[in-house]
Amino acid sequence: MSLSDAKPTGPAIEFVGVNKWYGRFHALRDINLTVGRGERIVVCGPSGSGKSTMIRCVNKLEDHQKGAIRVDGVELTDSPRSVEAIRRDVGMVFQNFNLFPHLTVLENCTLAPIWVRKKPKAEAEAKAMELLGRVRIPEQAGKYPGQLSGGQQQRVAIARALCMEPSIMLFDEPTSALDPEMVREVLDAMVELARSGMTMMVVTHEMGFAREVADRVVFMDSGEIVEVNAPVPFFDAPQHERTRTFLSQILR
Amino acid sequence: MTDAAFVRLAPAPALSPPASLVGPWGWARANLFSSATSTGSTLVLAALALWFLPSLIGWATWKAVWIAPDGAACRLAQDGACWAFVAQKWQYLLYGSYPESEHWRVNVTEVMGAVLIGWLLWTGAPRKLLGAALFFFVYPIVAFVLLHGSAIFGLPYVDTIRWGGVFVSLLVSLVGIVFSLPLGVLLALGRRSTRPVVKALSVTYIEVVRGVPFITVLFMANNLLPLFVPDDYAPDRFLRPLVGTVLFAAAYLAEEVRGGLQSLPKGQYEGAAALGFGYWRAMGLVALPQALTLVIPGIVNNFIGLFKDTTLVSIVDMADFLSAMDNAMKDTVWSGPTILVTGYVFAGIFYYVFCAAMSAYARGVEKRLAAGRNR
Question: Which residues on A lie below 8 Å from B268 (Cβ)?
Answer without folding.
Answer: 98, 100
